[in-house]
Amino acid sequence: MDKKIILCVDDEPIILNSLKQELSQYFSDSMIIEVAESGEEGLETIDFFREKGKEVVVIISDYIMPQMRGDEFLIEAHRLLPNCMKILLTGQASLEGVTNAVNQTNLYRYISKPWSTKDLLMTVETAIANYEKDKTLKSQNKQIQASIRYAERIQNAVLPSPNYLSELFPNHFVFHIPKDIVSGDFYWCREENNKIIIAVADCTGHGVPGAFMSLIGHQLLNRAVIDKKIYSPEKILDNINQAIRDVWNGERARFHEGMEMAICVIDKEENKISFAGARRPICVVQNNTKFNHVKGDRLGTDGKEDAVYTKHEFEIEPNTQIYLYSDGYQDQFGGKDDRRFMSKNLRALIRKMSENTMKEQLEQVETTFNDWKGSHVQIDDVLVVGVKV
Ligand SMILES: [Mg+2]
Q1: Helix (H), strand (E) at residue 328
Q2: Can you give the pLDDT at residue 46?
Q3: CB-based burial of residue 92 (10 Å sphere; 0-12 exposed, 13-18 middle, 19+ buried)?
Q4: N or C end: fewer C-beta atoms under 10 angstroms in the chain?
Q5: First and final CA of the chain: distance in angstroms?
Q6: What string of DSSP letters covers 187-237?
Q7: What's the rounded Cα separation, in Å, for the pair 195 and 206?
Q8: What is the Cα–Cα distance from 117 to 7, expressed in whole angstroms?
């Protein structure tokens, strides 16, 4: 086994000797006990082992030493080895020194001189165990992150490509900020039978479960529109609702995961837009003046038996813009009173910005969100889509 290092630093050789003796008796099978007689020598020792690729797991340092004090040494050591466990030996340590070390080096413990062997061994043993646990956690975390990053690529591949979107809507913007890399919010669009169908959906949950659900939602939209040739938004929702019931049928879950969805069918031949919403609204701005907001039905698509969705229709007028969005934007906490952004403010923003270009609108949506959120954490996936018909 490749042994790891415990480093002891003290200016008194007698103390170093007894530290080394006590620790060797207990840890010599798995650890090399190294000693240094000053902070400077301690730092050199750390450098030496880092170059050799060896791990210094625990540093035990005296506090009172000529030239470099124990807390000063540990602060430097912490910079080089942030994960290493640091223990301060305090004969007559000033409180300030200990506080300094605790604050700046993530000090694991301090032991007062004279120490009891049992106490020392126990402290070092738990320090080593903590070091290993941290290391495992960090490596697991890294693996999970890498796996989610890969999933993100898959999710992005499933979303409509920017080229396809631009082909259908030369003027559009998409503001999509997943909370946890992958997203339960997604958008979908397709040209079929001379109609353009666009959907924005928010699946229950976010992160990995939300993203899984979004792939189901994507497939169900494909099936309803491309395979079954359903071109009426309320019927697409109904079809998806039934399909989700089938998804959960084999699963005796007490609650069904589903999604909220806004669907819009743009029919330029008939000169009309039809819309249906499962808990998701639409905003339509026409002629830069007329502002329409339709809430959508208070029904998700989660397999409920008796869901009937309502179809709403609008004429396409010159300069018609439509906006579809999930609830993440309006639910974000922030502002000076730490409250939700609220849907009415999002509608006001849409109304205000709709006379600008789509590029400018994206900037406004983004800036407003970031200004509102400030240093608050993002609580949900965020998706706002605006298109000029
Ligand atoms: Mg949401």
Answers
A1: helix 328-331
A2: 97
A3: exposed
A4: N
A5: 68
A6: EEEEEETTEEEEEEEEESS-HHHHHHHHHHHHHHHHIIIIIS----HHHHH
A7: 31
A8: 17
Distance (Å, rounded) from C-alpha 107 to C-alpha 84? 10
Q: Taking residues 297-304, what's their average pLDDT? A: 83
Q: How far apart are CA 29 and CA 131, in angstroms?
A: 18
List the structure tokens of 35.
């000693």
Compute, in angstroms, the gap from residue 34 CA to the centroid of ligand 1.
55
pLDDT of residue 253: 56
Would you identify the CATH topology of the domain 4-141?
Rossmann fold (3.40.50)
CA dihedral 95, 96, 101, 102 (to 10 degrees): 60
Q: How far is the CA of 345 from the centre of ligand 1 (A)?
A: 17
CA of 313 to the centre of ligand 1 (A): 26
The CA 326 to ligand 1 mean position distance, Å, reads 6
Per-residue DSSP letter, 55: -
**Cβ proximity of 299 and 352 under 8 Å:** no
In the reported structure, the alpha carbon of residue 381 is separated from the centroid of ligand 1 by a whole-number distance in angstroms of: 6
Q: Among the CATH numbers 3.40.50.2300, 3.30.1360.170, 3.30.70.1450, 3.60.40.10, which is that of 159-388? A: 3.60.40.10
Sequence-ordered list of residues with C-beta below 8 angstroms from that of 388, at least 6 positions apart, any chain: 169, 170, 171, 172, 319, 320, 321, 358
CA distance linking residue 380 with residue 198, whole number of Å: 22
Instruction: Please give the pLDDT value at position 331.
Output: 96
Domain segments of the chain: what residues? 4-141, 159-388
> What span, in angstroms and rounded, lies between the C-alpha atoms of 5 and 36?
13
Q: How high is the mean pLDDT of the chain?
A: 92
The C-alpha torsion from 146 through 152 and 158 to 164, rounded to 10°, is -130
Backbone angles phi, psi at 200, to 5 degrees: -125, 130
- From ligand 1's centre to the CA of 18, what distance in Å? 61
Task: Kindly give the distance from the C-alpha atom of residue 160 to the centroid of ligand 1, in angstroms, as a whole number.
Answer: 20
